[in-house]
Amino acid sequence: MKKFISLYFTIVSFLFAQNESSLSGFIYDKTTGEALIGANVFIPNINRGAVSNVFGFYSIPKIKSGIYNVNISYVGYKTYTIKLDLRNDEDKRLNVYLEQDVIQGKEIIVKADSIRVVERLFNKPVSNIELSPKQIQSVPRVIEADLLRTLQTLPGIVPLSDFSSAIYVRGGTPDQNLFMIDGTDVYNPEHAFGLFSTFNTDAIKKVEVYKGGFGAEYGGRLSSVIDVTNNDGNRNFYEGKASLSLLSLSSTISGPIRNIGSISGSIRRTYLDQTIAKWVDEVPDYYFIDGNLKAFFDLNNSNKLSVSYFGSKDNLNFVLDKKRPESLGFDYIWGNQTGSINLRSIFASNLFGNFWITFSHFNSFFDFDDVGVKEDNQINDLTFKGNIQYFYSENFNFKFGFEQKNANGGLKQDFPGGKVDASKSRKLFSFYSSSVWKPNPLWNIEFGLRGDYFFSDKIYKNLDPRFSLKYRLSENANIKLSAGSFHQYANRIPRLFFVSIWTTADSFVRGSSSNHFIFGYERALGEKFQLEFETYYKTYKDIYSYNQNYVADVVPSNYSNDNVPIYNNQKGLFTRGDGYSYGIEFLLRKETGAITGWLSYSFSNTYYTFDGINQGKSFMPRHNRTHAINLVSTIDLNNFINEIKNQSFEKRDKQWILGLNFTFFSGQPITLPSSVYLFTQFPDWEQNKNSLATYPSTINTFNLPYYSRFDFSLTYEIDYDSWKISPYIQVFNLFNRKNVWFIQYKNEIKDGRVKQKIENVNMFPILPSFGITIKF
Amino acid sequence: MKRLTLILLSIIMFSCGESVVELEDTFEPKLVIEAFIFPNEKINNIKITRNFPLNTTPKPQDLIVTDAKVSITDLSTMKACSLTFNPKTLTYEYNANDFKIEFDREYQLKVEGNSYGKNIVVTATTKTPKKGFSIIKEKSVSGILSYRQKDENGLVKNLPLVFNISKGTSFYPVSIVALDASEQNFIYDNAYREVKKDDVIKDFDNYKYRQRLIFNVNSEGDVYEYDITWTTIWFYGKYRMVVYAADENYRQFSLTYKNVQEFDGNFHEPKVTLQGDGIGVFASMIADTVYFSIKR
Fold first, then answer.
1. Chain A 572-591, CB below 8 Å of chain B: which residues?
2. Would you call A276 an interface residue with chain B, using a CB distance cutoff of 8 Å?
């Protein structure tokens, strides 16, 4: 198969070849041997270049014969220049090891690379934001560094509340986000009932976020892609990191596997169950653990293999009263296991292939024997996928790919008076093709097409066109445009306390679709700042929201011999709807120097129309945040003044790093009650203090007050020999603002009168925490 | 520097303090209907009240609508009866013998009343369950039991409930009331958790009035068996357990009207089958009762 692909593209190349050479290879970090993503290879004489992909691979095809200086650069690394003789009509392979430009030994001071900011913006896809682990870790956080909470500080991405790490991207709901670790889909990436995400930031190499308009290689979700690449591991020597926070202990270690590759592993575990829960009866026995393992092998100069594993587990053993042996209690265990095998092959200098076998398993198990409730909720996803990147010429690149997903599982539940058995098998076949056309250095146009064939008890076939364009408007500015269609065949049922259940499109629930239209402008402000502006319009068709009254609407599929209902399908579980979102986003970002960070503003509105809700009239969903402002900054205090005065930075073994985060959101819409009424549930009951109920007003017409918060962190970094010790303190919500989450109403009849208690339920108060990180 | 100071001051100003929620008046007057009819029984105990605005503390008796026009029509014969208000029970009833509620028949309720100056008309239709529902007493909990009684293997025996299904009816709500409920009779040495006397007083009605909602039972089946767990029992003494074979109206309303606040605080509407500006239910049901006692 590989030979056939290689032969086919070689023939095509040969037919069009004219005394031309090509240059390709990988770009690595010299110290660790890690592949560098997004590094620039540039030949100034002919104004040709390429950017390394997620595997560090680059290719510049069809270079006219000549001797050229080639610059290879990457942000934070010394630029490498080499003179190459490309006169022999050859496919030149050049692997480059870039040296970190650690000015005076301080990683935090990141120097700009030699490629201009505007070029980097031009090479970046529309609505794409890249984050490094350093950027994720430098944002002040709730106890632990958390990927999803960092994403909540970006324009167009908002949370529902402090209590959830779930993200709502440009009006879309969390189930419309595709989470991937090393090419594998991750379902329910949440620890501690959604408080934290499962991504261990110590293991992350790079995060790419697509807020919309993503390319044809991504599918299956309507709103966004969060593509996480974990560290391959250090190929030169062993290194490690250990962290202790108020929540968990974690450790990461990586090193070479002889001279053929590398291995990297990390593990994190909370310890409250081993400490406080042993001394305080009210604290339940709960812990979570997660770990990553990734091995990378250089099979030969053209073939690289990586094997990746990620596992997480949350374990809650709850006993209502630990002093009573027969007290009510339950076990609740959930977690993810994902694995992938990835082969990257260079078939020819202009032909790069990528093939995966991935497996993703999510399971939650709940056992509350005392009340007869037992639940087993599973998803198993075995996927085969691959793509070929063909760097045809200076003007054309192509990508072809396929994906075959085999998913099974579902909810099985036994409860008094019913059984649920919704386990199913589903298949999704997808193919895609995209081509990048650069008619001249001012234009970058990408066309793509993705086809899906989804197979459940009903077949869904869809073709999704994708298009994006970038144009160099001036020396310092680009404009950008993107549009596309997107389909989704999976829906998530959010549940209080319990982890979400995933279901798929079938004869009761249609596949969802969305169209994105994005227009933007980006500008380099000097060589330090980048300004991005994007406006978007997004439609939704056949989206599904959990039917809050499903218990009255759900219909049994059949009955057991003892007349107990059995539920095999999702009829009545969801409410169907349509909708649209629109918005404007500004992002001012600085990635280099002693002060780094971003300032963002977004304006957005989302409207839904759901069958049977609000008499079919449109309304804003609860997660709508019309205005959002974020200011995130990391400041190297030792060199802060030097940067302002434009002086060179000083070398110090001890360094103070300040992290700041200011968040402002305008108030969320909420539905409040309009009145209270008397109703006694059973005819044989006397009126009692609970004979009261509330009746809602029109959906989401009330706006809560604005949300605002200021977080702060201070880290002291000490270099000692080859060790780096970094104790830190951080304070979430430094000024203890009382942000309202919702309003709680309690009604009762007491002393012959109705008594009402209306109180605000607030988000997190001030949350100080501290910890230490040791690198060795 | 001045600009930086100004920005910092603005950030601090926005990031401290407390959100002030100013609730808007979204009150809409409605009539609240609590109307249950039973085959072969007289029509009585029909309650018509008004809803009331948030942040008010009315007396329950002040909410009763005493001058409503209430009628029930047998839709198969179109014979109607007008209900009268009984000032002793504060409910509407029909005392004559010329109107009888039958099994498996459709009835319509019509209420015309005034709520805060607004004339409101509410209508609803119910179909009474078919004959056939009854608790099978010999197989169900009865007599005097020890708290969390155990079987010969030492396992706790739940409280059995077995009943004959009414054909076409899938909803069987169960009301369990502790008739001797008092602070003294509370089971303080219960198996589940420590409850202090103050908590018993505070949550007395929660412990006294218990329920189970059995829904989506095979309505074409014959017999249904259900185990009531001991988490329902919080007092020593006598209990009344009433099982209802209830209609679709009651199924929809009773399964949803108490769960109108979602976990993120948002409210949503319950399932109401009334037409017009009404909240509540017009339901038909068959009831059967068993009694049992829990000894100390």
1. none
2. no
Which of the listed residues A226, A249, A266 is the one where a domain comes to its end? A226
Of A739, A755, A756, the CB nearest to B54: A756
Which CATH number is A85's domain given?
2.60.40.1120
Which residue segment(s) compose the domain that A125 sits in? 121-226
**Residue A678 structure tokens:** 């008397």
Backbone angles phi, psi at A2, to 5 degrees: -60, -40
Do residues A255 and A372 both lie within one domain?
A: yes
Q: What DSSP state is assigned to residue A637?
A: T
Which residues in chain A have their CB less than 8 angstroms from residue B254's CB?
681
Instruction: Delimit the domains of chain B by residue range.
Output: 31-127, 134-246+285-295
Phi, psi of A236 (to 5 degrees): -110, -35
CB contact under 8 A, B19 and A674: no
- From the list A124, A127, A121, A125, the residue with the least C-alpha distance to A537 is A127
CB contact B6 to A (< 8 Å): no
ipTM surpasses cut 0.85:
yes
What is the tens place of the pLDDT at every residue in A597-624? 999 999 999 999 999 898 889 999 999 9
Tell me if chain A has a CB within 8 Å of the CB of B215. Answer: yes
My answer on whether A141 and A203 are in the same domain is yes
With CA atoms as reference, report the closest residue to A633 among A600, A599, A664, A665.
A599
Burial of B67 (0-12, 13-18, 19+ CB in 10 A): exposed
Minimum Cα–Cα distance from B34: chain A residue: A679
Residue A183 CA: distances (Å) to CA of A228, A308, A450, A645: 8, 10, 18, 44
| Residue numbers of A between 92 and 131 with CB closer than 8 Å to B | none
CB contact under 8 A, B192 and A706: no
pTM: 0.89
Alpha carbons A393 and A126: distance in angstroms, whole number: 23
CB within 8 A of A251, min separation 6: which ones? A240, A241, A242, A243, A266, A267, A268
Query: Please, are residues B103 and B130 in contact by the beta-carbon 8 Å criterion?
Result: yes
Nearest to A57 by CA among A77, A36, A82: A36
**Number of residue pairs across A and B with CB atoms under 8 Å?**
264
Element containing residue A543 per DSSP (H, E): strand A529-546
A507-563 confidence digits (pLDDT tens): 888 999 999 999 999 999 988 899 999 999 999 999 998 888 888 888 899 999 999
